[in-house]
Amino acid sequence: MSFPITAFYASLLALCYIYLSFAVINVRRSAQIGVGDGGNAELARAIRVHGNFNEYVPLTLILLACLESLHPQHWVIHAGGCALLFGRILHAYGLRLSEGVSWQRLSGMILTFLSMLFLACANLFMIHYII
């Protein structure tokens, strides 16, 4: 069994993760901080952006793969994957630029939560529908 749609979104999200990882590394190098954030606000924010991405993406990708294994219409899988991808990009962009509230952070979290909720509900519906 293959999961090409999940593989597509997982690959794009992996590229985002690599970008966020290098953002942390670059700030560490410029600030010469090896461990922790050293009280550097820019580094603390970069670490938080990276960590936040890592907190939400794995579970949502698992939900995406589970849904794909149940063979719904492709647009359903893409709806969840797109919401996750754009939600994480918007959130990272907004948090990277501002410590405070921004429309990008808010929109990003809303899209992320909607993606998780949509995928969880779609899985439950498909399980009920199939059984």
Automatic annotation (TrEMBL):
<feature type="transmembrane region" description="Helical">
    <location>
        <begin position="106"/>
        <end position="130"/>
    </location>
</feature>
<dbReference type="InterPro" id="IPR023352">
    <property type="entry name" value="MAPEG-like_dom_sf"/>
</dbReference>
<keyword id="KW-0472">Membrane</keyword>
<protein>
    <submittedName>
        <fullName>Glutathione S-transferase</fullName>
    </submittedName>
</protein>
<dbReference type="InterPro" id="IPR001129">
    <property type="entry name" value="Membr-assoc_MAPEG"/>
</dbReference>
<dbReference type="GO" id="GO:0016020">
    <property type="term" value="C:membrane"/>
</dbReference>
<keyword id="KW-1133">Transmembrane helix</keyword>
<dbReference type="Pfam" id="PF01124">
    <property type="entry name" value="MAPEG"/>
</dbReference>
<keyword id="KW-0808">Transferase</keyword>
<feature type="transmembrane region" description="Helical">
    <location>
        <begin position="6"/>
        <end position="25"/>
    </location>
</feature>
<keyword id="KW-0812">Transmembrane</keyword>
<dbReference type="GO" id="GO:0016740">
    <property type="term" value="F:transferase activity"/>
</dbReference>
